[in-house]
Amino acid sequence: MPSDAEPPPSAPLPHPAVPEGLRAAAAYAWRVVVVAVVVLGVFSVLGRFHQIALAVFLALVATAVLRPAAVLLARKMPRALAVGLTLTGSIGVVLSVLVLVGEVVAGQESTLAREFRDGFQQIAHLLEDSPFRLPPHAVTDFQSQLGELLSTHRSAVVGTVLSGAGRVVEAFTVLALALFCSVFFIHSGERYWAWFCSELPSRFRGRTAVAGRAAWRTFTGYTHGVLLVATVNAVLVGLALTLLGVPLALPLALLEFFAAFVPLIGSPIALAVAVVIALASKGPLVAAIVMALIVLIGQIEGHLLHPLVMSWAVRLHPVVVALSVIGGAVTAGVIGAVTAVPLIAVVWSVRQALRDPGPE
Question: Is 54 helix (H, G, I), strand (E, B) or coil?
């Protein structure tokens, strides 16, 4: 017989002390902290041995650029002789370009100094007119204050020059080590990598070989792509500045070539230097044309060269590229800005290759 008593109310479910979203966030947070600690440790170690890391990076760049030529020459001569000819020929080309740039700068030094002096007066008059309307004595006061500042801190300037001499010695040391490493990388790099893989435990050899092939394919693709982009930019800048009659067109083109190795921000900075020189030597009209050149080359680089040349090698979103460049610059200055994008691209390509279920 059914009871008339009401059933006892069911006990309410206990509410979790911590919301599900917060628990998930905490689970991800400690993993992010662990990854950040590992990354910080890696950068700390590389910072202590940054000369060696930079030398190895430069040697890998030289290998990516020069190895095809060495392989081609090795079909007609011994491999060692082909590597030697490739390296000495490339060094000769680089030194010839630097000597030519030095002669151009030395030949235009007096002319450029006079044009800068006259251009400074033009800039001063421009700032005194509408819309700036600076007081007539403002620019001259700034010039005198700058001279006083340099004379007051002359000892600091001399110390900086002396420390710069130490940096030159350090740079030559890094270049010598990079050249030494590149000889062996170009000659027998694949054999060294095969030996390294053979020394690993057997269960790691296949995946390590796959990761190495993916990393080298991405690195060489990025190096060849950025070299082509830099060359095209330098040629365009050199021709345009020569046609406009801007002094030091060849050194500015060389500056644009090296600046193109820093994605997104390198070329605008180099062309900004050209705008300043054009403003001081040729006046506002030519400077405006050079500024328009910045926009044009930026559009060609961003919408034509980079998508066509580098999309198959570096599959990174432009936001990732920008964050990588800024993060590398903050972490390690110019060197970090140059190496950040290829490093991130290599890591990403290795991850994608290892995720493929059938790489081996």
Answer: helix
